[in-house]
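Hey Z.,

So I finally got round to the calcium ion thing we talked about over coffee. Here's the setup:
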Amino acid sequence: MLAAVAAGCGDAPPREPTLRDPGVDSASVPAPGSADDNDGDGLCNGTEPDYGADPEVFDTDGDGLPDLVEVANAFDVASPGSPAEDQLGLLEARPGATLELDVRTTVDGDGQALSGFFSPIGSGIWPQPHDVGEFFISAVAVSADPIDNVRGIDYDSERFGFVAGETRLGFHLLFEYPFDEGVECARAYPFRYRLKNDEGDTVAQRLFLVVVAPEGAGDIEYCLPDDCY
Ligand SMILES: [Ca+2]
Ligand SMILES: [Ca+2]
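And the result:
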């Protein structure tokens, strides 16, 4: 569990409207303004009820992610299981630091080959200074449960040669912090991991967050905008 405390950062990026993952209705999120933000979580008092958030509580569901971070990444601010713990990875902002993240997705295979695809999600309502692709190094197929449902695991790639029946497929993703400078506060970078058949159809997908946090941080202190959304 990633603990969080309130933080404000002076390096908030510009907030022009930008493309968002199609799963998020960015049109429903108002532009930032000078409205009140009693709990300092980056969501304005008047916006919080739209998402089921408490305007007096910085982290409504107590899962460690401030309300704005959840809204900006299409998670449920009122559900501590959203995101699940296995949907979060912590990458220390230290040159050369790495994150190994195990991604597991259940599919109902029909005998086709399935391949995994790392799919970065672009800046949304609250643009971040980097893209998750800047931290991504590699992904490989590693496991299947039950193992008898698959044949031809290619451990050098993201591909299972044959998947039949309900099967939990595992992939191992590697991320690395590529910059010389650290960060003063944490930011969450979203991506989807998709499973596609050889026709290119997506048969399953899950959303994940890479949290890039200051070196040696205990409690995670998230960067938040000066003006609420
Ligand atoms: Ca608020
Ligand atoms: Ca939360």
